Amino acid sequence: IPVGMVFKLRQPDLFLVDDYWHAAAEANKQMETPYDLVNVRDHLTPPAYEGLMKAARENGRYVGGHLPDRVDLNKALSSGLNEVATLGEYLSYFQKDYDPLEESSGPVAYEIDFSGIQTAVKLTAENGVAVGTGLVADERAQKILEDAPKLFSSAEYGLVRPEIFESWRGRGLALEDLDDKGKYLREEIRPFAMELAKSLHDAGVTLVAGTSVLDVGVVPGVHMHRELELLVEAGLSPFDALSTATRNAAKVAQKMNGDAKWGTVAEGMRADLLLLSANPLEDIKNIRTIKGVMVRGRWYGLTELEKRLDDYKKSFSKIN
Fold it and tell me: What per-residue confidence (pLDDT) applies to 320?
């Protein structure tokens, strides 16, 4: 079965293009839908990327997603892209000897050239492109490779439904195709992403906290806290790390669909609040000391939150 057909069966709204006019035509069809954004995927050809971006610009549609590594980085960032999905999207542009047209049986541990980071940062800042973070997904992959049983025995994985674990197994729970790449993730990719995050922040680029929640090993909510901790480890202040998940996220949503009535504590804003027992500005880990949550003005105390979690966990059988 052609790869394109497999993608279409799994994602009916996905369209595959390889030239300017086909990309522009398909993109214009999509503009008639109520979606908030155009999601750019990997491996677009330069003409297809140009056609897609032209259609998005003409229709005033927000564009985010991958950096297609067949397209020159300058061109990719200066064609109207609003947001890069994760820090990892930049990686292929800095991997020595990487060829986007060369097929491989799995990820390759290319040497990473850090010297061009400031050029990429400058291009991103000049073009007003926001960047999602996604540090925790790489950390989860690293820990799976190094000791999956230990990782999955930790408390947060008690919140993962059995069918999700099964889907992870189906996608390669232990990431066997990465072979012995845990060290590469820890010693090469992690420092690269950390330096890039700090440099983008220092240049005034809007960073938006994200966890790549569909990746193997990522648990919603819990790992957003870890993402903020990793941003502080990268060199952001606790205040700035918190901003990536609050006011920065709202800033991006404003550009995407006009909804920005959240993300800051101010009169007229939506009442989404956390009550903590310790100050996260003193230690970002204090974000975990939750005593209650207000969602759209409704208060949920700790007792009710714990009961909801218990009821949720009782709804599925114990994970072995």
Answer: 46
Q: Could you count the other beta carbons within 10 Å of the beta carbon of residue 89? A: 20
Pairing status of strand 207-208 against strand 130-132: parallel
For the stretch 244-261, what's the b/e string if a residue is b when 16 or more beta carbons lie within 10 angstroms of its beta carbon? bbeebbbbbbebbeeebe
pLDDT, tens digit, for every residue of 95-143? 998 888 776 655 678 899 999 999 999 999 999 999 999 999 999 988 8
**Helices 46-59 & 20-30, crossing angle to 10 degrees?**
30
Q: State how far the Cα of 153 lies from the Cα of 143, in Å rounded to an integer.
A: 12
**Matching residue, tokens 């009710």:** 304
Find out whether 135 and 88 touch, Cβ atoms under 8 Å.
Answer: no
**Residues near 134 by Cβ (< 8 Å), separated by ≥ 6?**
85, 86, 87, 88, 193, 210, 211, 212, 227
Q: Of 200, 187, 179, which is closest to residue 111 (Cα–Cα)? A: 187
- Classify strands 290-295 and 298-301 as parallel, antiparallel or unpaired: antiparallel
Strands of the chain, DSSP E: 37-40, 62-65, 83-84, 130-132, 207-208, 273-276, 290-295, 298-301
Who's near 69: CB < 8 A, 6+ residues apart? 42, 43, 92, 93, 98, 100
Q: 10 Å Cβ neighbour count for 108?
A: 13
Q: Which two tokens mark 116?
A: 């061009």
Smallest Cα–Cα separation from 192: which of 89, 114, 111? 114
pTM, to two decimals: 0.90
Rounded mean pLDDT of the chain? 87
H-state helical runs in 203-246: 222-234, 238-244
Helix residue spans in 129-204 (DSSP H):
135-152, 162-170, 182-184, 190-202
- Which element (helix H / strand E) includes 50? helix 46-59
Amino acid at 107: P
In the structure, what pLDDT confidence band is assigned to residue 305 with cuts at 50, 70 and 90? very high
Cβ-in-10-Å burial (0-12, 13-18, 19+) of 164 comes to: middle
